[in-house]
Amino acid sequence: ILSTNIAETSVTIDDVVYVIDTGRIKEKSYDPYSNVSTLQSSWISKASAKQREGRAGRCQPGVCYHLYSKLKAVSLADFQVPEIKRMPIEELCLQVKMLDPSSKIEEFLKKTLDPPVPETIKNAIAVLLDIGAFSLDEQLTEFGEKLGSLPVHPLTSKMLFFAILLNCLDPALTLACAANYRDPFTLPMLPNEKKRAAAAKAELASLYGGHSDQLAIIAAFDCWRSARERG
């Protein structure tokens, strides 16, 4: 069984007696000073290593092989960095104002167990101001209340509301789903394969008269849906 860290907890398979732990994890990271999010491969924590080890030997004797040294195991952090400290928090800030409109977001978040750095909060507020969710004095606008009513990122919410006004909700929903999941296109490793993949992506986008990644995603989904309907 080959699995990501999704199998670290709450998964018990009776006949698993061996676990091989690479000690690595892919997680999203956010740099508030460059305002850039990345998907990075990093070392797991001691807590995660313990959970992975616990997948073997639950129903019968088992063994876990950790593919890193004892020195590395000792140097691992006790726990992973909390998501609030390594992710953009626009959605969280919007929810804070919806729950307590009179509060100041920075003061509110400073009371959390692991408060984000001030720069992360400032970046989030700037985004919410830019899309019209907040007024200049950091008050929740009527449009902000509408954005917060959808369980997605505020930027995605704004796209969906404008799509309703412009009568193009169906492709916008496709983009919203794609934005909140992994890239539907694979990136080959070989140079020749990369060129072929780029050409195929451009051909898909051209079906709707453009060159953008968004048009390629919509075209790919529509082609898949048509093929599925044809059986």
UniProtKB/TrEMBL annotation:
EC number annotated for this UniProt entry: 3.6.4.13
Keyword terms: ATP-binding, Helicase, Hydrolase, Nucleotide-binding
Reactions catalysed: ATP + H2O = ADP + phosphate + H(+)
Matches recorded under Gene3D superfamilies: 1.20.120.1080, P-loop containing nucleotide triphosphate hydrolases
InterPro entries: Helicase-assoc_dom (IPR007502), Helicase_C-like (IPR001650), P-loop_NTPase (IPR027417)
Residue ranges annotated for the Helicase C-terminal domain, each copy included: 1-100
Coiled coil feature spans: none
GO MF annotation list: hydrolase activity; RNA binding; RNA helicase activity
Origin superkingdom: Eukaryota
SMART domains: HA2 (SM00847)
PROSITE patterns recorded: HELICASE_CTER (PS51194)
The protein's name: RNA helicase
Organism this protein belongs to: Opuntia streptacantha (Prickly pear cactus)
Lineage of source species: Eukaryota, Viridiplantae, Streptophyta, Embryophyta, Tracheophyta
